[in-house]
Amino acid sequence: MKKPVDLKIKNARNRVEALKVFYNHIILYCIVNIVLFLVRGEVLQFFQDQNGNKNFIDWVDWNILVVPIFWGIGLLFHAAKVYRYKLKFIKNWEEKQLKKYLKEE
């Protein structure tokens, strides 16, 4: 039988590891989005120089701007998981699943 102290140490290590992964995610998010915004003008200029279609150029521009938004939303969910913040609908779902599986046992 494992000692409670061993379990606490394991849980603490797991939380530290989750934090490290989250911080790496933030760093990657910042680096990629800074690069995207720095090259945005160059990318748009390249397609304009190629006599590109205006709709295609707008599509490229829109996609470059949308990446940080959707990735940021994902990053918020990652933060909620790491910091153990549970949204009400997630709590309700977990409780329903728990009751369902307890009823099956």
UniProtKB/TrEMBL annotation:
Pfam families in alphabetical order: 2TM (PF13239)
Domain 2TM: 10-102
InterPro entries associated with the record: 2TM_dom
Parts of the chain that traverse the membrane: 21-39, 59-80
Keywords, in A-Z order: Membrane, Transmembrane, Transmembrane helix
Entry superkingdom: Bacteria
Protein name, per record: 2TM domain-containing protein
Gene source species: Aequorivita marisscotiae
